[in-house]
Write a structure and sequence with these properties.
Layout: E1 4-5, E2 28-31, E3 40-49, E4 54-62, E5 68-74, H1 84-95, E6 100-105, H2 116-130, H3 132-135, E7 137-147, H4 149-159, E8 182-185, H5 191-194, H6 201-207, H7 215-220, E9 234-239, H8 248-257, E10 262-267, E11 277-278, H9 280-296
Parallel strand pairs: 5-6, 5-7, 7-8, 8-9, 9-10
Antiparallel strand pairs: 1-2, 2-11, 3-4, 4-6
Helix pairs in contact: 1-9, 2-4
Length: about 300
């Protein structure tokens, strides 16, 4: 692929996930494309079928015997674009680091309003546990990650671990949707603060109303609202050239006050969807592999 010199990136919204634009440093970037790595098989599982969309999981399963911890990826796209393919290279690389990795195609805002997307993420986690044996997953060791809109959903999925009111009516109710570790990439965590003085088209489409009209929905959908004792370790990865992610710093302070591990990693010269292109995809995988190995462990023969 032809390499492009980077110029200044302008971010239109904190939750968009468009292809990265050039940044200012002269650093070169290269978009990465999906390709199932040798030694792995990608399996597709149906999570739930709705008239508007069939929720699916795409899982990279090792050919080797044994069990591994699992990482669920939740893609971005302003909650309205399906960007599973763009996240596959990152999850393929993480699979090679000793994990079973999976991506969920949740219902978009053009298909069903919030909390449908969150319910689909919860159902996907339950589905992974229901199929743990065939997927070679240790059901006790599952984490989640996501970027942009997927970062919001990843944070919300993690912070609502153990709260029955957020499970929804999806299948596999005999299984848990808990996660043991979480990574949030480039995502706002306080939707009340970020929408207080504006009416974002993407947010209104996702929630069906503005924050001014339905503040209680925006508050309940904000990961920062649900920080409490017992939520999983959560770290943040952000791009230096991206916009400020509202609520991230405040959420970190709440986590620290509870003694829950948290940190922020800022990638130099990185634009908003940094995980879709190298060198930042590689940097993201390095950070994620260390974090998840610490909290989920490695393969068991």
């Amino acid at each position: 692929m032809k390499l492009l010199f980077l110029s200044i990136l302008v971010i239109a919204t904190s939750l968009s996930a468009a292809d990265p634009k050039p940044a200012s440093s002269g650093l070169k970037w290269q978009k990465v494309l999906p390709k199932t790595p040798a030694g792995f098989t990608m399996k597709t599982l149906e999570v739930a079928k709705y008239p508007e969309h069939t929720v699916e999981l795409y899982v990279y399963v090792p050919d080797a015997e044994g069990t591994r911890p699992c990482i669920l990826d939740i893609h971005g796209g302003s909650w309205k674009a399906r960007q599973v393919e763009a996240d596959k290279p990152m999850m393929e690389r993480l699979a090679q680091r000793g994990f079973v990795t999976a991506l969920v195609s949740y219902r978009l805002s053009t298909e069903a309003k919030y909390p449908a997307a969150l319910h689909d993420c919860k159902a996907a986690l339950r589905c992974l546990r229901a199929h743990a044996k065939e997927l070679k997953i240790d059901p006790e060791r599952i984490g989640c990650m996501g970027g942009s809109a997927g970062g919001h959903l990843s944070g919300l999925t993690a912070m609502t671990t153990g709260l029955a009111g957020f499970e929804g009516d999806g299948p596999f109710k005999d299984q848990s949707s808990a996660v043991k570790a979480c990574i949030v990439m480039a995502a706002t965590q306080d939707l009340i603060a970020s929408n207080r003085d504006k009416t974002g088209e993407g947010s209104v489409l996702f929630f069906g109303a503005s924050a001014q009209d339905q503040p209680e929905i925006y508050k309940a959908a904000s990961p920062i609202t649900h920080v409490r004792a017992g939520v999983p370790p959560t770290i943040f990865i952000e791009g230096e050239k991206d916009t400020l992610k509202i609520g991230r710093a405040e959420m970190m302070e709440k986590l620290k006050a509870l003694g829950i591990e948290t940190a922020v990693h800022t990638l130099k010269d990185a634009p908003h969807p940094f995980w879709m292109s190298d060198p930042w995809c590689a940097q993201t995988v390095d950070i994620a592999a260390v974090f998840f190995k610490k909290h989920l462990g490695g393969p068991v023969p």
